[in-house]
């Protein structure tokens, strides 16, 4: 038995065609799923529908998958141990990383990170449970989505499931803020034990997917910010104390960032200033090179930075865990300088766009909508009257395993931005929905 291709609910592969490789089946199941299609209507940075230029969760996921697949292909040629099949978690198949990248954001609710924040706050405050986007990925993939022959999700292969599992923890542990809900953790834990995965360590495929997500975030979101006029390509803007201090503040208030890239060993403000100045100088050089054409310069800058980051990815031994780690590598050691540069660019996107007062207004509006939607659905006696019948039927079949509030979170989290606004409008505004509309 190939334990990388094992499926939890179809161990003998009797419910799918034998004409394709197992990872090809995973790819087809993912891209043809409603959850994947709905990503086109979920915000990345700018709200879905803000304009046909800006990225959505769908285009972001596709871009991550392209970067990850190409890096996996290069690493497979560079590191000979990957071909030795030493351990199922120490392999890097491009098709597995591609599938994981396509699925990594399925659990995000409408309205981006604000939606996740609101749902988590409601569930923790009122019900003592959490909402977490990475955990919701597995709830979708292992339970909510349906396919022919399966009542339990898409039944993806073990390799793809564990490549999505970048936080290999159960969320019932009080110290863990990210991980997998207990119901789905049973299956993930079974696979990890079967593979002999070290505690707290993720597969190389999961690590690569996660790093390529950061590469995309730190480059593509800046491209969108420049296009939207939120990031101004002028020397004054990049030397502005407001921007420098904002980036420094975001890093210092991010414990994970402070620990992972060892900021304590560097002059943080000086490095932020230097990286911003270097970015502007490079922009100006490319701008002149391409005839002062902003659109072409913007795309060229994005391409160069993606290439710079992607070509620096490597694999090192991790003495702390005794496992291996996918990271930026230079001269056989972790390249902390490159990690810090990427982190600075990620925070530039956050400070200039997410912190923008107009975006904050939209996020406050989104928060109000989600809270009122929740209030309308939170009581089973009245909430079941306004939920689609198939959701109520699903709850009745499974209510011994999960409570009503988890169903409500699943329903709201699955909404696109536009659908959340539609339901809100039907409940609280003057618009009257037709009984013939399909939910």
From TrEMBL:
Q: Does the keyword Hydrolase apply?
A: yes
Among PANTHER family, the record links this protein to: DEOXYGUANOSINETRIPHOSPHATE TRIPHOSPHOHYDROLASE, DEOXYNUCLEOSIDE TRIPHOSPHATE TRIPHOSPHOHYDROLASE
Q: Which is a GO BP term held by this UniProt record?
A: dGTP catabolic process
UniProt source species: Paenibacillus oryzae
Write down the InterPro entries for this protein, in alphabetical order. Answer: dGTPase (IPR006261), dGTPase-like (IPR050135), HD/PDEase_dom (IPR003607), HD_domain (IPR006674), PHydrolase_assoc_dom (IPR026875)
Know the name of this protein? dGTP triphosphohydrolase
Q: Which UniProt keywords apply?
A: Hydrolase
UniProt cross-references to Gene3D superfamilies, sorted A to Z: Hypothetical protein af1432 (1.10.3210.10)
**Source species taxonomy:** Bacteria, Bacillati, Bacillota, Bacilli, Bacillales
Listed GO molecular functions? Answer: dGTPase activity
Pfam annotation, one family: HD
Q: Which residues form the HD domain?
A: 57-218
């Amino acid at each position: 038995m190939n334990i990388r291709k094992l499926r939890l609910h179809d161990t003998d592969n009797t419910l799918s065609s034998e004409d394709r490789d197992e990872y090809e089946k995973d790819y087809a199941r993912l891209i043809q799923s409603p959850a994947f299609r709905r990503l086109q209507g979920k915000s990345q940075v700018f709200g879905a529908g803000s304009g046909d230029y800006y990225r959505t969760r769908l285009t972001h996921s596709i871009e991550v998958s392209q970067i990850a697949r190409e890096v996996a292909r290069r690493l497979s040629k560079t590191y000979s141990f990957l071909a030795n099949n030493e351990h199922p978690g120490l392999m890097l198949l491009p098709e597995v990383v591609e599938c994981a990248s396509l699925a990594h954001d399925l659990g995000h609710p409408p309205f981006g990170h604000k939606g996740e924040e609101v749902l988590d706050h409601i569930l923790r405050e009122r019900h003592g449970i959490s909402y977490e986007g990475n955990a919701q990925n597995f709830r979708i993939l292992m339970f909510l989505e349906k396919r022919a022959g399966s009542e339990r999700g898409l039944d993806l292969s073990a390799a793809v499931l564990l490549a999505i599992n970048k936080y290999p923890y159960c969320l019932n542990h009080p110290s863990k803020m990210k991980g997998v809900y207990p119901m789905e953790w049973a299956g993930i834990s079974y696979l990890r034990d079967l593979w002999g995965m070290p505690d707290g360590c993720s597969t190389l495929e999961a690590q690569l997917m996660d790093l390529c997500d950061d590469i995309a975030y730190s480059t593509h979101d800046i491209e969108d910010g420049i296009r939207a006029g939120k990031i101004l390509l002028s020397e004054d803007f990049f030397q502005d104390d407001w921007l420098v201090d904002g980036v420094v503040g975001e890093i210092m208030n991010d414990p994970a960032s402070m620990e992972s890239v060892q900021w304590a060993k560097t002059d943080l403000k000086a490095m932020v200033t230097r990286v911003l100045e270097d970015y502007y100088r490079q922009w100006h050089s490319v701008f002149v090179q391409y005839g002062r054409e902003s659109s072409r310069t913007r795309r060229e800058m994005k391409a160069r930075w993606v290439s710079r980051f992607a070509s620096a990815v490597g694999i090192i031994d991790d003495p702390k865990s005794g496992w291996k780690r996918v990271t930026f590598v230079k001269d056989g050691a972790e390249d902390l300088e490159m990690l810090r540069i990427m982190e600075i660019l990620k925070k530039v996107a956050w400070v200039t766009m997410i912190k923008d007062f107009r975006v904050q207004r939209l996020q406050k509006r989104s928060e109000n909508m989600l809270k009122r939607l929740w209030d309308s659905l939170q009581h089973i006696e009245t909430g079941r009257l306004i939920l689609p019948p198939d959701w109520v039927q699903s709850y009745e079949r499974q209510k011994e395993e999960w409570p009503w509030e988890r169903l409500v979170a699943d329903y709201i989290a699955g909404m696109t931005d536009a659908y959340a606004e539609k339901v809100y409008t039907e409940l609280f505004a003057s618009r009257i929905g037709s009984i013939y509309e399909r939910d």
